[in-house]
Amino acid sequence: MRNRDAGQLEFMEIDLREEGEIPRVPIPDRSALRQTGAYAARSGGGILFSEKKFVEEAKRLVDMNVAAAERVPFMSYWPTYGVMDDAQRQWYFFWRSEVRQGRYPDTDLSYVFVHVYELINGIGWQQPEAGYGQLKELWSQYQARLPQLDAYMQEWLVDYALIHRLDGSFGELVDLADGRLPAEVLDMEMCRLLKQAEPHIPLKLLQRYVEYDITLSKFYRDGGREALAEFVPGTIAVVNAYMTRTRGGGIWELYGPSGEKTMERVLFRKAVYDDGLYGKKALLTYSPIGEQPEFVRLATQLFRSIENKLRELSGFRGRLRGNSLEPELAKLVERYLDKAYSARQEKHGERTIIAIDADKLAVLQEESEYVRQALTVEEAGDPALLEGDFGTFAEDQPDLPAQTTAGSAAGLHPAAEVFEAEDIPGMHTFETQPTTASGLAGVETLWDETTLRELDEEWKQFAAALAPRHVLAILALLGEQPDAALMRVAEQCGTMPALLLDEINDVAMETIGDLLVDGDRIMDEYMDPFEHVKSMR
Fold it and tell me: Cα(146)–Cα(466) distance, rounded to whole angstroms?
């Protein structure tokens, strides 16, 4: 039990002896514990200094330098000079001298905290800007080596900027804190930038206002982060300028909050800080733009539009789905990024250099001629075909079934209309029906009506948008010999496998919002809707 008046611990002795004498070991009085070393100081006999005592000691030691010292481990929950031994103090003052000269040797976290405490208490600088610069550089230099610093420094630097009225420094903190600053501070920075004539919003700030975690995107993780960081600021500036010109106000005027909020902020939590210097609390006034649903929706749509365009420009497969940016602004984003991305490539010498292989060119020309002939309807002697009288044309060609001629009028290879699925190895067999001018026979859909009703709406749209040749190609991919089967379908349809798969992916992008086929195979994550189709083989 603590005696509040004496400030000492008192103990009650209980005699548990049954027989004999048990030796007693006296507990020393805390006041008897002493500190050693030239720089130690006592405060009422205690080991830990009070905040004021720390500041007094820091002022006395502000110019202490040690020319050389050996690194000694130091770990303390409440690090101060008073809990260091002689060797630790020698290393600390040597290390601090190195830091002040722009060298940042490896050290322990507790040493860094002691120096931070000095700076936030006004020790080691003449102008607040200089102290801020030292704190920021200290964090930057040790951020990767001592990641535990992040949680403390991002809060303490905000407090430092508030009490010294360095609000313009929050932009630098957004970058250092990787967008994880308090929400009200991010709102302050966002509003400050949006009020500028050309607001360049960095990616790390914008991502706080997007409705989902952008870092989970495969594009972001696989190298797209750099492109997004490069092009997001300029794109938003262009959109803001366009709105200002055409709608009478920029993003801030159209989407900013109407009022402000004020909150009290406790200064330098968990730090050794003398609140007699700058007070215990500071007022923070900000515009809560992050609480505006319309702004958050715009930020999300803008970011999604930017990422999708960059995916396209960089050749990255797949697109983000969801609520889209209005067409007028979406076109503006696309036009700007087309130009900006092209300019970036030219600046860095990334123009594509095409080397022509004469042998491969000859093969491609031969294949192209085959496809041209397959897709071209000969006009000579077929005036009825040009008039759309398919029946008359069929009668003039007794060697070909009527459905073949009709299919040819749609620009398909004639042979594509007269084969059955059993001609393709490993493919489901179905009955052929007479064709029309718009498609192949008997392959209108992959799913029967019962199964189709159970599919999600996006898959229903996908099924409705597929042409018969696409259905045949998908059935081929689901077969036991997909490569051979797909080649057979392509030959029968007068095209090439790659073209068929590209067409299927185009349909998929418009409906399910992603590529269906990757590497000549249906992507694993989209195999579930085809389970019933596979079981029919």
Answer: 55
d(CA 68, CA 364): 73
Give the pLDDT of residue 365: 58
Round to the nearest angstrom and report the end-to-end CA distance of the chain: 81
**Residue 208 in tokens:** 């706080």
> What angle, 0 to 180 degrees and rounded to 10, lies between the N-to-C axes of helices 457-465 and 497-511?
140
Q: Scan for tokens 């300029």, then name that residue.
A: 234
pLDDT recorded at residue 249: 94
A 10 A CB-CB count for 201 gives 23
Q: What are phi and psi of 262, to 5 degrees?
A: -125, 135
Instruction: Label the pairing between strands 281-286 and 261-266.
Output: antiparallel
* Mean predicted confidence (pLDDT) in 66-90: 93
Whether 476 contacts 486, CB under 8 Å: yes
User: Which pTM was predicted?
Assistant: 0.55
Assess contact for 83 and 113: CB atoms under 8 A. Answer: no
Encode burial over 229-268: b for 16+ CB neighbours within 10 A, e otherwise. eebbbbbbbbbbebbbeeeeebbbeebbbeeeeeeebebb
Bridge partners of 518, per DSSP, are 521
Q: Residue 447: helix, strand or coil by DSSP? A: coil
Exposed e or buried b for every residue in 359-384, given b needs 16+ CB within 10 A?
eeeeeeeeeeeeeeebeeeeeeebee
Q: Does the structure show a pLDDT above 60 at 295?
A: yes
